[in-house]
Amino acid sequence: MLTLAFRDDHAVVHLMSDSEQISLLVGDDTVLSGAEVEVPIMDDLGMFTGDFVLDVDRAWGLVHDFTQT
Predict the structure, then answer these.
(1) Is the separation of the CB atoms in 48 and 2 below 8 Å?
(2) Cβ partners under 8 Å of residue 25, min gap 6
(3) Residue 41 buriedness (CB in 10 A; 0-12 / 13-18 / 19+)
């Protein structure tokens, strides 16, 4: 399962290959490495460092490209 969580201009992309393993796409330097961003995950807010935050337009483009291949 591939998920895209976003809030304002920030997004986080998760890849869940099974119930035990979740991978995060590396950020694109939209947010500094040490900074934190909150995005909605299910019914809560998840906190992510800039290491895993992307610009929302870039994230949408990557998800679109992934689904087309």
Answers:
(1) no
(2) 12, 13, 14, 15, 52, 54, 59, 62
(3) middle
Q: Give 50's DSSP letter.
A: G
> From CA 27, how far away is CA 21, in angstroms rounded?
19
Q: Which one-letter DSSP state was computed for residue 43?
A: T
> Using one digit for the tens of pLDDT, what is the confidence trace for 19-59?
889 999 999 999 999 999 999 998 999 999 999 999 999 99
Question: Residue 6's closest CA among 43, 55, 49?
Answer: 55
4 phi and psi angles, rounded to 5 deg? -125, 115
Q: What is the pLDDT of residues 5-19, one digit of tens each?
A: 999 999 999 999 888
Helices in the chain by DSSP H: which ranges?
56-68
